[in-house]
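Progress report, Aim 2. The chain analyzed during this reporting quarter is listed below.
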Amino acid sequence: MNNKRLIFGILFLCISYISFAQKAHIKGVILDVENHPVADVNVSSLGVSVQSDSNGVFEIDVPSNKKVSLIFTHISLKMMSLTVSLKPNEIFIFNPVMNNSQEQMGEVFVSSKNKKRVQGIVNIDQTTIKKIPGANAGIENILKTLPGVNSNNELSTQYAVRGGNYDENLVYVNEVEVYRPFLIRSGQQEGLSFTNTDLVQNVDFSAGGFQAKFGDKLSSVLDITYRKPTEFGASLEASLLGGSASVDLVSKNKKWSAVTGFRYRNNSLLVNSQDTETNYTPTFVDVQTNINYDISEKWQMSFLGNISQNKYLYEPLTRETKFGTIDQPMALAVYYDGKERDQYDTYFGALKTTYKVSPDFTLKLIGSLFHTTEEEHFDILAQYRLGNANSDEATTIDDVEFTRGIGSQLNHARNDLDALIANIEIKGFKEWRDSQLEFGLKYTRESIRDRVVEWEVIDSAGFSINPPIVNLPENNQPYEPYTGPLLPYQDVRATNFNTINRFSGYAQFNQKADLGSNQVWYNLGARFQSWNVDGAAVEGKNQIVFSPRAQFAIKPDWDIDMIFRLSGGLYYQPPFYRELRDLDGVVNPNVKAQESVHIVLSNDYNFKMWDRPFKWVTEVYYKSLSDVNTYSIDNVRIRYVANNNAKAYAQGLDFRLNGEFVPGTESWISFGYLKTEENYEDKGYIARPTDQRLKFAMLFQDYMPNIPSVKVYLNLVYNTGLPGGSPSYSDPYLYQNRLNDYRRADIGFAKVFVDSSTQLTKTSWLKNFKELSIGLEIFNIFNNQNAITNTWVRDVYSKNQYAIPNYMTSRVFNVKLNARL
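Predicted structure tokens for the chain:
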């Protein structure tokens, strides 16, 4: 017994000694106010000091589990101090900016550093967003490389998250919710995302289990903050796809500041690489500004404004598509007449005022107005020829061996929409030492004026095809003459004037505490929303939902830096206008909110590999959905059934490994598994339109070892095929085919003349630039044929429906110039 006690005592002393001797590690890059690295900065703590190297890089070890002060001193800059309290073996990244005025940085605790980790939020670096190539470069281009985020359309900025659709994602800019267009049906019509990456300072993303302070959607939150400039600056980007410019302005007394950006985009380069030969004349332009005014130390105001105009003129000429199998290759030739003219004009303004009642109590008042006018007008006649193709890949479409079907279809639309959405919101934030209380109330009024006139006539071998509806005589052409009425195969006509009034609010409580020697974080919150739909011919009942949500995270007192998180709750998505309108264009005012019981279990592990920082994140999630509003997707257009007659589920597993695979650059690899199915009117479970089973993505940054100023960026995505949809009027339970796998790799090469690490002489012509680079981008470098949807073509003789894949863009080259003053 005594021997056991002796051994236990020795082990206890050894563990205590090791724990006492453990240290934490602080590293970073020291910059001046012009973002230039500062060499020879003395960094000292408890008698230990180091100096920054020529690139401003410093590293220092400090004791763990205690408050430690770091002092930064330089011969020509003012002293800076920082107080931290870190856990054993923790790596703390700190990039200070030294200037001519002394600055006390205050205390940094683990709770502050781990805030986004414990909330399940992914922070995306703004410089990475600008560098990574993509046909639609920007924030959404980066999101598509994250696990659980899927998109098979490089022309679109829309994305689906963990089995949801494009309408289930919240997007905020400066705490103001922004909206996607109503009528857009294809990615090539989109042009520009709302977010201007030239103005961005911070990007946070959550793929599920998010807090009550965020709104009422089922899938994800993208929270973007535009920067508040501190000095004059300007940037320019130009490429074969368009260009952008921005300017930062600051008043002499520093009370006023503004950042303004202009963008222009033309997708002709990409659209011309598709199967369809077109005359394509798009113009996508927008102007955004973020203006800030500091009335006093306690009171600030800001204005966010946006004006955009998207004009889309599309005149298809011919299309040639080969499909089928090796044993039975087939070909489709289409000859077009007519054109499409669309225009989308949006105007957005938001005014926010922030008042600090006390150092730990803040109030915000936010008002916003969003106005969009959209028109979609087209008359397009398509005459097709469907037949067997020769197996020789060099054979052209005109060399088909046997024609199976000849027909035509005429599509007509005169769709017009005018929407005005107004919001007014008050938010509060009260902080104690280790806890915070947040609350808010919001009123929203949505006024929608919508006219839908859309029809399609299908003619197969000279015989008009009627819709398969009751009370029509049987059509057995061409074997028997048909004497019944001739009707459009599809005919949607509706005029809707609707107003939706919404009241919503939330309250949530955050707290950090200790559980023994472990650290824990709690978040408990709830939301409510009340709404009703009125209109000229409809009057809906008032509906209310209550949404409790919670998060719990624990950081065990282990030698490794690991956090476990459990989050979830009862999430609702009250219907937006698109979800109220059924397949006939008629508004159902009493569509219920879709409901989801959502649970997420995750593990976040920070570690070092090759003496560099890395992170491994694992998440398991499950959603049980009820009152589901089923829908179909055609490219990016979503059409709802609007009856809540389904239930569904989504389950999956996500992995992400990111870190410095190459020193000084962040890259990541992600993998996701998803299964989502729905049961409509108890017919059984089938795959939902966003059932993206497997996903693999890689975002990689590198540089040439012998020429470090030449950078290489790789954006690679592999997705298994989505469900391919079904023909009009058909039972989707009978059409469970899938599209081919989506495989795409975009690569970019950039020659960097100036960046933050470049040392220039005073006589250099580059001295006025903070950044300057020129690059070459190759989109879809392996020239894979990726399909987004199917076009269904009817063979009048066999009555078969053939699924013709609509392929996306092929290999495209682009040249890009980036400059910043």
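The first helix runs from residue 2 to 21. The longest strand covers residues 329-358. These observations will guide the mutagenesis work planned for the next reporting period.
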